[in-house]
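Help wanted!
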Amino acid sequence: MTPGSQNHLSEEALDDVLIGLGSPESDAHLARCPECRAQVETFRGDVQLFNAASMAWSRSRMPGLRQVHHAVRRTRIAFASWAAVAAALAIMAFAIWHHRAVPAANQTATVQSQPVDSEAQIAQDNQLLQAVNAAISPDDVSPIDEYKILESPHRHTKTGPHTRKK
Amino acid sequence: MATMALNTLRIAYIERPRIESPMAERARVISELDDIDELVRLHQARIRRFVTYSTGDPDLAETITQDTLLRAFNGRESFRGDCSLSTWLTGIAINVTRDHLRSGRYKFWKQLKTSAVDVSEMASYLPSEAVSPERRVLAKERVKELYAVLEDLSYNQRTVFLMKFSEEMSVDEISEILGMAVNTVRTHLHRALKAVRSRMGAKI
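Answered by r_m:
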């Protein structure tokens, strides 16, 4: 039952031949042994019948071309959708981040600007506040006096730019 | 006679006209990959057959075939050309099949519904030019018997058998695609062949 003997190929040697890994001895045996050769040919014939039938069956189910096209299109649409969603999320995330970051930056700027105020700036601010205070002070001529609605001899002095001169 | 006719038939299915220069060959392959219609036309039936008979589930095979072609088309830049396009596609099909078989969704649907290969229907597709009318009934029976044997093999044994005898890959290619040692591939093949011999033994 070994290759090259007067008997036939062993099962393992026969399998090796079928797999395509047959030794030269096996090939030599097959060349002179019609029985072993018939076994090999029968197996190959069966496999070829199976391959032919199964391929013809598979070819008969060919409307898959359209399905693959749809699948390609679906993939592209899905990709575009995901890209759009990702872009929208990125924009939202940026907006939220910006919203949080800008007030914080302003706060920091305010905190940092306080020590920068000079004495001159403070004096200028005080002067402005005093001017405002004077402008809205009770010393102003009231509309009643201004238009002499009442017969009051009471007069007021003016300090602002709209002071009436007698 | 029938074997010769089948050989001719098989050559018509598998082989394409030889192109002399390797650059022209590569250009052809790239153009095949760039054209989804061409990719589907040339390879869909072969991938569907392989996946159908390795998983035994035609519905799943349909999904896997589509996924395989889609993945190949989307990942065509990664095709290096160090193997044939058919081998590359078969490798993708195997990976996609593994992903599907591992997924919980597949297991869930598998429990609910199993679509099996209708082997009688498949055998009826035996091309008329493959066998003479007198031998046709016998040939169909042989096809059914062979599939019955394959059905009883383990997934790995069946896949290796189909890669070797239907996809006509070498043991080294099978080993590389499946990530198995060459000896493991050979062991699977020997076991598969032993099963074929024991079931169809008297006739082989």
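OP: Thanks! One thing I noticed: Residues 64-113 of chain A form the longest helix (50 residues).
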